[in-house]
Amino acid sequence: MSETLQTTDAASDADLLAQTAIAVRAAGSALRERFGEVVRYQTREELMRALAANDDTALDILRPRLTSLRPDAGWVGDELAGGALPPGEWWVVDPAEGNVNHLHALPEWAVTTTLVRDNQPVLTAVHLPLTGETYTALTGAGAHLDGRPLHVSPSTDLGLSIVATSQARPDEDEKVVRRVGSSITAMLFDALVVRTVVPATLHLLNVAAGRIDAFWQFAGARADLLPGALLVTEAGGQISDAEGRPWTPQSESLLAAAPGVHAQAVATLSR
After folding, report:
1. Per its UniProt entry, which superkingdom is the organism in (predicted)?
2. Number of H helices, E strands in the chain
3. Phi-psi label, residue 220: left if phi above 0, alpha if psi -120 to 50, beta otherwise
4. Strand bridging mode 253-257 / 214-218
5. Taking the model in full, what pTM does it have?
């Protein structure tokens, strides 16, 4: 009986993922139409209005579609929030991940949607409108790029690895900012190449696809980390906090790496 229920649930989640991917592609198309010219702003208020305009453009498409797919699921309205969610199902959405890049006509931005069930990510879809790529993952069913399976890097030597991190937010606690800086310095000694750009999700996509070997971040929001954490896990990667302990949305750091360099990355970040 339980096996039948599990099979039915898996099939239902697979169908739900397919519909979620359609929704993020539609939202991405709307954001792509707004992309190309640098949006100028002189004050923090002007910046926030420009960011909100992009968010609203995508949310006007995502919210009704996702609500119709899962009417009883909660909706996380603040993509910058962190920590655990109440029990049940929740849509965790970043309608314009890398929104500041979009405003500056830079290509590193995406639309992400993740369904979380009892604080575990079940499925995720991440769409990159400028390339047309859609990354998806379903718990127990693997990670894919436009239907092709993803696999993390086979690298076993951090000294030959490309690693990446994302900078702290402008209003981040000073202790976190300094920890980010010291971790970059440590990795500059131990890794082959260190990349430091935003947003986090795109680095995690690259870990899942085997293009880079490790990504770490201190602090961070659910919407930044949950999609990529599921993609990396389903692509065969290893997820922990920066000290090697099990990662949860409440953790103060995240490390996603190919299994062959995970322990080396932990050692570097723990110095």
Report:
1. Bacteria
2. 7, 12
3. left
4. antiparallel
5. 0.92
